[in-house]
Amino acid sequence: MSNQGGLRERKKEATRQAISDVATELFLERGFDNVSVAEVAEAAEVSRMTVFNYFPRKEDLFFDREEESRQLLRTAFAERPAGEAPIATLRKLVHSLADRVHPFAKFTDATAKFWRTVAESPALSARAREMRDELINDLASVLAGAINRPLADADARLAASMVVTALTVAYAEGLREHKARRSAASSRETFLRIMERSFSGIAIMLKDTPYA
Amino acid sequence: MSNQGGLRERKKEATRQAISDVATELFLERGFDNVSVAEVAEAAEVSRMTVFNYFPRKEDLFFDREEESRQLLRTAFAERPAGEAPIATLRKLVHSLADRVHPFAKFTDATAKFWRTVAESPALSARAREMRDELINDLASVLAGAINRPLADADARLAASMVVTALTVAYAEGLREHKARRSAASSRETFLRIMERSFSGIAIMLKDTPYA
DNA sequence: CATAAAATTGTACTCAGTATAATATTTACT
DNA sequence: AGTAAATATTATACTGAGTACAATTTTATG
């Protein structure tokens, strides 16, 4: 039987982390497309097959936190005050992320380097876009679920698409601001300013729906 | 020297078209991921290398009209009345596309099958997302250029992202409506209704900028 | 018809990702 | 402790996209 805190589980987690760490380091150093999975395996002192055992796709070695955003949404809506408009819940969540300097609203040299590495690799860029679309789908489901609407509700899809698009633009501009001014405060303000403008527009789009 | 309407040019174009046609047919029939480039080459009676000569990536065999959307934007803004708000120009363009039943606003069994084939292939979906991002970048440049702003203008990026996102959602819902009701009129209406709602919200987002 | 330019092809390669079977290691049980 | 079952790791061999480069065929031009 599988032992929760057993040696096997701990070793697996350690192996996984070791592979991910050494891979991330190599990718940041030399660029995602200039490092083969075989090299990662060798550097992690593990076989190529083991790498693919833990990470089905090479891109997963770099993007190792997809589940986090999903969880973030679920808890935000689980704790939502009854009767609050879903869009208001999201607006609060965004401010909370900015206040807590969550990775999704963090503008530092490290995050800049991370996203530069993504931008320089077609494969990583493609995976980032895919994750964006998955986030939109998740959010649409959560939004529709929050007010007991069918999961394919068109208004939910519009709302989710617009919010995630706003986040993408706001985050990109936040990063640009960081590169230009190197100020955490002004990056944060740029990010929030764009999100606020976006939310005001999104509210209009959804004004005759239960989402706003 | 290269002869404009010479035999060589005509033959090249014919070969290219023949490859693209036979590939599209195979992909629609059996699915993009179940047909190898080698098979396409064989069916087109051409070598594998020749296929890659004309179409650098396999996905290009299916998406063969990327330039069209680019051109659509440029001409719309070239013919724009002086002083018209860029967002108004886009709104008119969308209505014009719907009226002319342009491929970007066309809801038929054929377009449904086309996009179903895309949805069923990870590679084609990825390429579609990439094209969406390229369209956003193009549109942002055109918007900024239209009012003599720097090409990286944040407002232009926000506007472009929002409009393309709206188009994506509106088109998807138009397709869904087609599948449900098989009515060209009601698909068109669904599409335009979502676009109108989106434009009204986008106008709010940009109300203090020269774009709206 | 000969020759230059350009299109097509052949060959050999790299790399991601998959399938499958063999081997090593941990766990559970006596 | 020792052993059998479960599971992690590895070896091997494969497919298919995409690239590099050289050889060959086809078209254009004098």
Task: Explain briefly what this protein structure is.
The first copy, chain A, is mostly helical. In chain A, 72% of the residues lie in helices and 0% in strands. The A-B interface holds A 125-126, 129-130, 133, 152, 154, 157-158, 161-162, 165-166, 168-169, 172-173, 176, 190, 194, 197-198, 200-206 and B 125-126, 129-130, 133, 152, 154, 157-158, 161-162, 165-166, 168-169, 172-173, 176, 194, 197-198, 200-206.
Main attributes of the structure:
homodimer, mainly alpha, 9 helices, DNA-binding
Q: What does this 3D model show about the protein?
A:
The structure is a homodimer of 212-residue chains. With 212 residues, chain A is mainly alpha-helical. Helix content of chain A is 72%, strand content 0%. Chain A has 9 helices and no strands. Chain A has helices at 7-30, 37-43, 48-54, 66-78, 86-99, 109-120, 122-146, 154-181, 184-205. In chain A, helix 8 runs antiparallel to helix 9 (184-205). The N and C termini of chain A lie far apart (49 Å). The model of chain A has no long low-confidence stretch (mean pLDDT 95). At the A-B interface, helix 7, helix 8 and helix 9 of A face helix 7, helix 8 and helix 9 of B. Chain A binds a DNA duplex (30 and 30 nucleotides) through helix 1 and helix 3.
